[in-house]
């Protein structure tokens, strides 16, 4: 049985994801791309779920590489940039949002998440509001990316609306508006 490198296996799995989407990713297909038998993958991944978790973590490596907020940083600006970056990471791979949905951070990602949470609390956001705000923004971001990846053509420029008709925002516009609403709510909750 050929031995393979875990990082290479994850990168090949992500390349497969970009080509065929999440439904086409299997341990068999990844092994075939690597030129090995399927059991070779079990050296690093007990099952497909472990492979998918490693892929989800790899998708967020770019996000995890960003500097953590520092004392004195404006928490509002950080909040907006953090979720913009998160969304960008999810959109960088086909079905990235579906891959991430339901995943649970562990190890270094979990530690970074706790540090971000502590930053908000240290900046004056009440603990319960920091938890609720980060969770709501995270779920909103995943949902926004999921919707965009499910209907990428919706971002075609809209025709000018006739009088009395609504103009449907693009995915980016809707995300920005929703994120600002979440921030406004978090600010209001923090002011009380």
Overview of the structural elements:
The chain has 192 residues and is mainly α. It folds into 2 domains: 6-59, Homeodomain-like (Arc Repressor Mutant, subunit A, Orthogonal Bundle), CATH 1.10.10; 65-191, Tetracycline Repressor, domain 2 (Orthogonal Bundle). The protein is built from 9 helices and no strands. α5 runs antiparallel to α9 (171-191), α7 packs across α8 and α8 runs antiparallel to α9 (171-191). It is flat and about 60 Å long. It starts with 5 loop residues before the first helix and ends with a helix.
CATH architecture of the largest domain: Orthogonal Bundle
- According to DSSP, the number of beta strands is 0
Approximately how much helix is present in the residues? 55-70%
Alpha carbon gap, first and last residue: 62 Å
Into how many domains do the coordinates divide?
Answer: 2
Number of helices: 9
List unreliable stretches of 5+ residues. Answer: none
Looking at this protein, list some descriptive labels:
192 residues; mainly alpha; Arc Repressor Mutant, subunit A; Tetracycline Repressor, domain 2; 64% helix; flat
């Amino acid at each position: 049985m050929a031995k393979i490198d875990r990082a290479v296996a994850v990168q090949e799995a992500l390349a497969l994801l970009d080509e065929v989407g999440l439904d086409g990713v299997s341990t068999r297909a990844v092994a075939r791309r690597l030129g090995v038998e399927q059991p070779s993958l079990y050296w690093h991944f007990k099952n497909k779920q472990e492979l998918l978790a490693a892929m989800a973590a790899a998708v967020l490596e770019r996000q995890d590489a960003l500097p953590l907020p520092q004392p004195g940083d404006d928490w509002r600006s950080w909040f907006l940039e953090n979720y913009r970056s998160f969304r960008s990471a999810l959109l960088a791979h086909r079905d990235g949002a579906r891959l991430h949905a339901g995943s649970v951070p562990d190890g270094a990602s979990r530690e970074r998440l706790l540090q971000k949470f502590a930053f908000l609390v240290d900046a004056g956001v009440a603990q319960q509001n920091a938890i609720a705000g980060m969770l709501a923004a995270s779920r909103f971001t995943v949902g926004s990316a999921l919707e965009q990846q499910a209907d990428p053509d919706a971002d075609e420029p809209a025709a000018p609306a006739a009088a009395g008709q609504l103009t449907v925002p693009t995915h980016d516009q809707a995300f920005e508006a929703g994120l600002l609403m979440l921030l406004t709510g978090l600010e209001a909750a923090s002011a009380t």
